[in-house]
Amino acid sequence: MATCALGICDGSGFLYDEATNTARDCACRPQMIARNRARGLAAVIPERYRDVDFDRFPVTEIDPKVVAATRRYVSRIDANLDAGRGLWFMGPVGTGKTTLAMLVTKAALDAGRSAARYSLPGLLSQIRKTFDTGSHNDLLERLVAVDLLHIDDIGAEQTTPWVLEELYSIINARYEEQRAVVITTNIMDRDTLCQQITERTVSRLTEMCDELPLMGHDHRLDLRIA
Ligand SMILES: Nc1ncnc2c1ncn2[C@@H]1O[C@H](COP(=O)(O)OP(=O)(O)OP(=O)(O)O)[C@@H](O)[C@H]1O
Ligand SMILES: [Mg+2]
Ligand SMILES: [Zn+2]
Fold it and tell me: 14: closest CA among 30, 25, 2?
């Protein structure tokens, strides 16, 4: 149960006036919002990407056109999420795809929206675990309900019919509910991607997302040399 940090309200962050049947903010509310936000960021954004910002390295080094498109998306995050519009970062290893996708996920959380973030291999192993506990439908429901679903590394997974079906059912459910996804892939060629994750899934993602291609070399190598 939540409690009021100042011992004033019932922990809801609101004070109710029964006489007038109105609610007003408790003095603890700003603190409470900040705490919830920090908790959300910590749960969703991995340590390496926690401080990503448009004004900071490495975003300042990434293709300005792609960064500008990301910034535009983020500046209208509420409208984009409401409309189920997403972004698809594609490009070779180490070109900043996950970094930019994290900016979007962070912006959603900052705007008070719900977001979940997985690598596709990680998501699939979560799904496998739910079969032991019988919570498969709960997880799928959550994956559809969240305002923004960020899936990294689509197409990197060893595919089996089971993997393809799970991915398809998640993407299709969000497609039907008009809910936004942000994804990253290493595969630039559409035919190759269709072979990897099925044409049905690629077709839906194409409609749901603006494609943002990133070029260049693996910048992890620069960091190692430096
Ligand atoms: N354009 C860039 N200039 C300099 N450093 C960069 C650039 N893009 C990414 N980096 C750095 O390279 C590393 C990899 O970035 P990131 O994880 O965003 O890459 P990615 O495209 O998602 O790679 P992968 O395909 O392997 O998942 C990070 O340490 C990041 O800071
Ligand atoms: Mg990545
Ligand atoms: Zn309070």
Answer: 25
